[in-house]
Amino acid sequence: MDAYQFDPVDMRVLAVLVEKQALTPDSYPLTLNALVAACNQLTSRDPIMQLDESEVLGALDRLSAEKLVAERTPAGSRVAKYEHRLTYVWNIDGARLAALAMLMLRGMQTAAEIRARSGRLYAFSATEEVETALAALAEKYPPMVRKLARQPGAREARWAHLLCGEPADDGCEVINLGLTGRVAALEAQVEALKTRLAEIEARLDN
Predict the structure, then answer these.
(1) Contact between 157 and 148 (Cβ < 8 Å)
(2) Domains recognised in the chain with CATH numbers
């Protein structure tokens, strides 16, 4: 395999499984309902998606075929649960797994942004540890991440994952979210504008 060509929905599902394994270990592996809800979070996600069960199930089927996701049915439960297998299939864990998951969840970022946003996912000791993890991912074959050219006016260069193919040369991520994803993104923007407008009106009233 010379390059990865995964669907963005597949990457959201994988990244969410990595995130929730660290953040909510008591409820991991995840049920389908929990997985759909986590994929559609309005926080700590870029881009925002609005996936339904059928789309998530389709991603789970594709990822299962690649051995990247496993289905489990715990004893005494009738509900299937899902877990990622990246540690075994891609041989990544710890700092490398966390750095990759952050790029999958929130798009292109600098090493400093990844460290600041990682929270309980992984306690990076310094930005240099993030850079080391990213460099290791960039050296894998095929490479999983790439450091982009620093944009004019930017203090640091950003990193991008390569699991859905190469990012655009200008550093702008182009992801086809489908109609539901675009509508969800627009709705989130409208809500943010409404909130901002309400704040301005409140200040004027005072």
Answers:
(1) yes
(2) 8-161 (1.10.10.10)
Task: Give start and end residues of each alpha helix (H) in the chain.
Answer: 8-23, 32-39, 53-65, 86-89, 94-106, 111-117, 127-138, 178-205
Look at the chain and count its residues: 206
pLDDT above 70: residue 181: no
178: pLDDT confidence band, cut at 50, 70 and 90?
Answer: very low
Interacting residues of 173 by C-beta distance below 8 A, sequence separation 6+? 107, 108, 160, 167
CA dihedral 153, 154, 160, 165 (to 10 degrees): 0
Instruction: Compute and round to an integer the Cα radius of gyration of the chain.
Output: 18
- As a whole number of angstroms, the distance between CA 86 and CA 148 comes to 24
Q: 123 by DSSP, 3-state: which?
A: coil
Amino acid at 183: V
Summarised one tens digit per residue, pLDDT across range 37-81 is 999 999 999 999 999 999 999 999 999 999 999 999 877 778 999
pLDDT tens digits, one per residue of 136-145: 999 999 999 9
